[in-house]
Write a structure and sequence with these properties.
Oligomer: heterodimer
CATH architecture of the largest domain in chain B: 3-Layer(aba) Sandwich
CATH topology of the largest domain in chain B: Rossmann fold
Shape of chain B: globular
Distance between the termini of chain B: 57 Å
CATH architecture of the largest domain in chain A: 2-Layer Sandwich
Radius of gyration of chain A: 20 Å
Number of strands of chain A: 9
CATH class of the largest domain in chain A: Alpha Beta
Structural class of chain A: alpha+beta
Helix content of chain A: 25-40%
Structural class of chain B: alpha/beta
Radius of gyration of chain B: 24 Å
CATH superfamily of the largest domain in chain B: Thiamin diphosphate (ThDP)-binding fold, Pyr/PP domains
Number of domains of chain A: 2
Largest sheet of chain A: 5 strands, antiparallel
Largest sheet of chain B: 6 strands, parallel
Number of helices of chain A: 4
Distance between the termini of chain A: 36 Å
Number of domains of chain B: 3
Strand order of the largest sheet of chain B: 2-1-3-4-6-5
Largest interface: A-B, 25 and 23 residues
Shape of chain A: elongated
CATH class of the largest domain in chain B: Alpha Beta
Strand content of chain A: 35-45%
Number of strands of chain B: 18
CATH topology of the largest domain in chain A: Alpha-Beta Plaits
Number of helices of chain B: 22
CATH superfamily of the largest domain in chain A: ACT domain
Chain lengths: ~180, ~550
């Protein structure tokens, strides 16, 4: 049946009704069916009763197809579609705490500047850098900075949106009440 | 009006006539409120069986079955029943009491996170925290359970929510679920494609699954087959959709199916799977099925299509609707050669079976091997033929199920069993639900002595409510199917399969005040079956089966 056995990574955008335990329903589906989650982010949209979940996942074509179908089947899910790299923008945020005393501080700041990172905390022995970008950029920066001692690292996982207005989803749901029918999420 | 009244009123609005369940403190407001209505309650003896009974009721009536139990152990006992219903796509609403909502999450007495525990085998679940949500949630739950690919829906209701006042009760007329819109009508283009492909095909076969029963499509499918002379096979879940002796029916497929059914599947150049999952019990190596044949997959659940085998023509929709459309179309094809070939397979297989039967008799005669008890396949065949034409046959799980599904002769009746989950002990409680749902029908449950002992406490329910189910216990004193597996795969190294010959079923029947009959050998079978079926009263028929019998 397989059109491709090749493993690939895809980013899915899932819009869900903000019902209790919706995130566990999604992540539970992935774990019990053995789908891989590389990263998952979730947050409310402009319409607070709808949450956007972005999942980066990997697998072959059959798995990708099943992910779309099985996720669509969940009652809370309004929409799932792939954020294709050529039509979308992905961003990830990382906070990196590096050991740096006064002699190393300048060098670390210089590296952060190249990647347009911000210094968001300084202590006598450490610096905290905030860096935003697609996962590749974040990876590259972490590789570079690992010449210094990384004390702590926090990554958010991928968030993404499609480019332009083509795939914008408008809320047209009576259940959300009148007067917000043109709100986007 | 309080929350419990709102739940009960919602059940009335949904036309619910029976509730299967077991009360406890956390669901007491509900069981208090239900006294004000005409809804009949059935006190089952263990919660798992409440779900099985609701499942049997749902399968025979086509309505949504309802099970209502208490929190904690009541709810966790229900789980096997819910999972069984989920695997077979049986529409059911399960309501569980829950501890006081202020206490939830603090491990108080009889608290269990039932919606969390059931997450992977319910179609949807709710925890109600605001009593004002009750009518909407109830409406949605029945809608979700009974539409699209059917399945169980769980509603967990904390006891304080059941006691809170509900000021405005209005049962919604419609559901407004933006996110849940199952496809009913099959796509017209795909429907035409299937017909066009059938005209090109030389050796087509239709394989019917449980979905045909669930969508009430058996008559439409039969009409299509008769009109166009297309051969048909069935999965275990699809049994009795097509009468066994129908000239175009080539039996059950799969590892316990008919050899000629499997030959028909293998030899076909076009396979139409109808409401079947293409699952591991029926199709070996589903990945390769489409290599040599055109595969059409018709199912109401788009996620089933392509899950186990990639179809050439996917067709999402309700089976009855799809076949109604098929029947409106003209199909010009002639499969006479193919049907002749299939009839040849069938004759060969029947001759081989006759040979095996002869060998068995021969072995008994020459004392090379002595089999005690009845010949199970022959017994099942004769039992099903002696039953009323439209009787319901509920098979349990194990060797008895294999004998049942390959020897039961379907006419106008129904065959049902726990297919996906293979839950031992399903037959008796499910049969209770069936008989309650269709009291005019003869209902026969067939189980082994292992499965019987898993849910035998429900005999009390049968007696208490005067539910005249007929129960056949094929008693071989071992866990037959496991024993058979150990025979083939562990070279007769038997482990933990001896049940012993207790309990004495005569004494059990006496204890419950149930009619009891026994058949010890083939000679007694005909009279025994006739006596067993003659009265419309709860009866246990003990049938002696040799532990060495293989299915």
């Amino acid at each position: 049946m397989s059109t491709s056995e090749v493993k690939q990574t895809k980013v899915f955008q899932i819009l869900v009704d903000n019902n209790p335990s919706v995130l566990s329903r999604i992540s539970g589906l992935f774990s019990r069916r053995g789908y891989n989650i590389e990263s998952i982010t979730a947050g409310v949209t402009a319409e607070p009763r709808i949450t956007r979940i972005t999942i980066a996942t990997s697998g072959d074509d059959d798995i990708m197809e099943q992910i779309e179908k099985q996720v669509s089947k969940l009652v809370d899910v309004r929409d799932i579609h792939e954020l294709k790299p050529e039509e979308s923008v992905y961003r990830e945020l990382a906070m990196i705490k590096v050991r740096a005393d006064s002699t190393q501080r300048e060098n670390v700041i210089a590296l952060a500047n190249i990647f347009r990172g911000n210094i968001i905390d300084v202590s006598a022995e450490s610096l905290m850098i905030e860096i935003t970008g697609n996962s590749g950029k974040v990876d590259a920066f972490i590789r570079l900075i690992s010449g210094y001692e990384i004390l702590e690292l926090a990554r958010t996982g991928v968030a993404g949106l499609g480019r332009g207005t083509k795939n914008v989803i408008y809320v047209d749901d009576m259940r959300l009440g009148a007067g917000i029918s043109d709100r986007t999420c | 009006m309080n929350g419990a009244d709102a739940i009960v009123n919602s059940l009335v609005n949904e036309g619910v006539e029976y509730v299967f369940g077991y009360p406890g403190v956390a669901i007491c407001p509900f069981y208090d409120s239900i006294l004000q209505t005409d809804i009949r309650t059935v006190l089952i003896r263990q919660e798992q069986c409440a779900a099985h009974a609701a499942s049997g009721y749902a399968r025979i009536t086509g309505k949504v079955g309802v099970a209502v139990v208490t929190s904690g152990p009541g709810a966790t006992n229900l789980i096997t029943g819910i999972a069984t219903a989920f695997m077979d796509s049986i529409p059911m609403v399960c309501i569980t009491g829950q501890v006081n909502s202020q206490m939830m999450g603090s491990d108080v007495f009889q608290e269990a996170d039932i919606s969390g525990a059931c997450e992977s085998f319910v179609k949807y679940s709710y925890i109600i925290r605001n009593p004002a949500d009750i009518p909407r949630v109830m409406k949605e739950a029945f809608h979700i359970a009974g539409t699209g690919r059917k399945g169980p829906v769980l509603i967990d209701v904390p006891v304080d929510v059941q006691n809170m006042p509900v000021r405005h009760y209005a049962y919604p007329e419609t559901v407004n679920l933006r996110t849940y819109k199952p496809t009913v009508a099959g796509h017209a283009v795909q429907i035409k494609k299937v017909i066009a492909q059938l005209e090109r095909a030389k050796r087509p076969i239709i394989c019917v699954g449980g979905g045909v029963h669930l969508s009430g499509a058996a008559q439409e499918v039969l009409k299509f087959i008769d009109k166009n002379d297309i051969p048909v096979v069935s999965t275990m879940m699809g049994l009795s959709a097509i009468p066994t002796e129908h000239p175009l029916f080539y039996g059950m497929v799969g590892n316990n199916g008919k050899p000629y059914g499997n030959l028909a599947m293998n030899g076909a150049d076009m396979v139409i799977m109808v409401g079947a999952r293409v699952a591991d019990r029926s199709i070996t190596d589903p990945d390769r099925i489409s290599e040599s044949k055109v595969l059409v997959h018709i199912d109401v659940d788009p996620a089933e299509i392509g899950k186990n085998a990639g179809p050439t023509i996917p067709l999402v929709g309700d089976i009855r609707h799809v076949f109604e459309e098929f029947n409106k179309m003209e199909l010009h094809a002639d499969y006479t050669d193919w049907i002749d070939r299939l009839d040849g397979y069938k004759d060969d297989a029947r001759n081989a079976k006759r040979r095996r039967m002869y060998e068995r008799e021969d072995a008994i005669r020459t004392q090379r091997r002595v089999f005690h008890g009845v010949n199970p396949p022959e017994f099942i065949r004769n039992l099903s033929l002696a039953m009323k034409e439209d009787a319901v046959y509920v098979a349990d799980v194990g060797q008895n199920q294999m004998w049942s599904c390959s020897n039961y002769i379907a006419r106008k009746g129904r065959f049902m069993t726990s297919g996906g989950m293979g839950t031992m002990g399903y037959a008796l409680p499910a049969a209770l639900g069936v008989k309650i749902g269709a009291p005019e029908k003869q209902v026969v449950a067939v189980c082994g002595d292992g499965g019987f002992q898993m849910t035998m406490q429900e005999l009390a329910t049968a007696v208490q409510y005067g539910i005249p189910v007929k129960l056949v216990v094929l008693k071989n004193t071992v866990l037959g199917l496991v024993r058979q597996f150990q025979h083939y795969n562990y070279k007769d190294r038997y482990s933990v399969i001896q049940l012993g010959d207790k309990p004495d079923l005569f004494l059990i029947a006496q204890a419950y005040g149930i009619r009891y009959l026994k058949i010890e050998n083939n000679e007694q079978a005909a009279d025994g079956i006739a006596a067993f079926l003659e009265k419309d009263e709860a009866t246990i028929l003990e049938v002696t089966v040799d532990p060495d019998e293989l299915c």
